[in-house]
Request: fold
Amino acid sequence: MQKKPVSLALMSVPHIVGKNALGQAAVYFSGYSRIFVLVDENTEKLCLPVFLDILSNVSITAVIKIKSGELHKNIQSASFIWQQLTRLHAERNALLVNLGGGVITDIGGFAAATFKRGIDFVNIPTTLLGQVDAAIGSKTGIDFEGYKNQVGLFADPKAVIIDPVFLDTLDRKQFRSGFAEMLKYALIMDIALWEMMDNRPFDAMAPDLGDMVSRCVADKISIVEKDRQETGLRKLLNFGHTVGHALETFFLNSGTPVTHGEAVAAGMICATMISSHRQGLDCNSPEIVFEMIDRNFARLNFAERDIPEIMKLMAQDKKAKAGELRFTLLTKRGNAVPDVVVPEAKVRESLLFYLRNQ
Ligand SMILES: NC(=O)c1ccc[n+]([C@@H]2O[C@H](COP(=O)([O-])OP(=O)(O)OC[C@H]3O[C@@H](n4cnc5c(N)ncnc54)[C@H](O)[C@@H]3O)[C@@H](O)[C@H]2O)c1
Ligand SMILES: [Zn+2]
Reply:
């Protein structure tokens, strides 16, 4: 863990990253008429006391609590947040502090950006996935009618505070979920990060985790600052996600949800297999990638007969254009190309490969 937090900027939004980042953040809470903190029941219990202890001089008007989990990233929760802000007399210069994982930063950003045409919000991600991904890049939104992130908008937070203090209470499953996104950065753009992972199981990386998180934050910022609206380069970040999202929905619908990272890890195996056939990924790399993923993630439990349903979900994804399946593919470890059209048959083959080569 590095000693001092670093300050990075994305479109002039400060991102304070590292040990004691929260202790340096008081400045982002000044000048507001009222300050609200959005939590779920877990972050209320585990993260709010830490926040209140470190920022004891910040005067909080009220805590707004929604139920945890993806199932509650919906219009009812958004409506509840607007209702609470209304009842608690939030004015245009109120601040909403999003203290939680990706669900809280996504829905909190959405609720803040739409309330009275937009009040300020600060993201304080408390999961590894939130810290390396969800809280960065200004995408906000909710799920709607069974589709993930169906309604939302791009909205910039006033600041993003990324402090490892919150990760102490995170369980292994959630840790691994964030780790899948870290692997993604390593594979698409950051071979030095891959080297830091250096054939170690995830648990053995703990001493370097702080540095690795900072690298991921810098990696995401460097992509988003070139393509905030995801017209091109930002699609690189979708590596593993074309198949991953379909698997995530498939398991959610079958009543045995897997984490986002578990689904993306499986998606990265499929995308790597496709890369070796279509993008000339060198012949040693797929095995090295599979080995790293399999060391950290159990294979997901679906069967060959489920593949048509998974393919159907993939075609419905809002990232699919005019029935074409588009993938980010690797050209080598540490380098990728976005938006490659891949025939359905090849995608099906990659799912079969995933099932048969374990
Ligand atoms: N906006 C973006 O660019 C973007 C990018 C990636 C993912 N996302 C979204 O992020 C969401 C997933 O985020 P997530 O994995 O953080 O899920 P999450 O917010 O549901 O958090 C996972 C679980 O961990 C709990 N938790 C949070 N902080 C904790 C802590 N410090 N200690 C113990 N438990 C804690 C939560 O209460 C929850 O039960 C999805 O909705 C996804 O769509 C958004
Ligand atoms: Zn993701």
Observations:
- The CA atoms of residues 13 and 159 lie 6 Å apart.
- The first helix runs from residue 41 to 46.
